[in-house]
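Please check this record.
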Amino acid sequence: MKQQLVGRKVRAYTKRDMMGLVYIAPWIIGALIFQAYPFLSSFIFSFSKYNIASFEWIGLENYKRLFTVDKDIINCIKVTFGYVFITVPGKLVIAMVVALILNQKLKAINLVRTIYYIPSLMGGSIAVSILWKLMFMSDGAINSVLGIVGIKGPNWLGNPATALATISLLEIWQFGSSMVLLLAALKQVPKELYEAAGVDGAGKWRTYWAITFPSITPILFFNLIMQTIQAFQNFTSAFVVTNGGPNKATYVLGMKLYTEAFSNFKMGYASAVSWVMFVLIMIMTAVLFGSSKLWVHYDD
């Protein structure tokens, strides 16, 4: 009798498992086809001379050439890190400031929050990048406005000193997603802590650093990780706005990968570039996780 009950339980449990697999099958199939397969394929291709029409195994030659012959890779890495170090802190700082403002009880605050979030809905689209390019041309809208007040605007996109900062502003401008997450974190800070700080006579600045900031560091850390990964993978703004110029001042790794794969048709070499990007992202992520022990505070 006991064995029969056990058998029934096993059959019922297995049936539920099968139904669960059926429901998540579309996601599993999609992950295998569009994520796992390209991921593994690119790793194999990085050790080959592959150009769609032919495949030849060449071992580590792509990586040797990348770091000993290719004159662009070091510049690409420097430009990419420069882009990351401009966009990620800039976006998070602005997102934090705006979130603090929108956390106040103001009239029509929901409308204001929506307006601030709209740029993130647009994303890194081609249309927005083209608009950004038109705005920052030497005779674009930005310099026209500066000319009205008697300031001669610089050649934003034609000067290597300002081109990278200009396309970085496009990414910083889309701070809405980070702002929404930080705003949600601010809403979760217990009011009792602020009341206790008020009783102790703590000012706004002291209250922020002693209560607000430590309470939202987990969400801030999550934003930092996600925005860093996204910045390393940037391609659209560098391609559309400056096309990697001037003098390759905005030639990020995403541009390098695209050029080798779809302009030079060196898919194997492009795969090696993609894995260099992957390793850099992993190193940065590991560094950020290591530093989180010093400044990220959890409830426990």
In short: Confidence is low (pLDDT under 50) at residues 5-9.
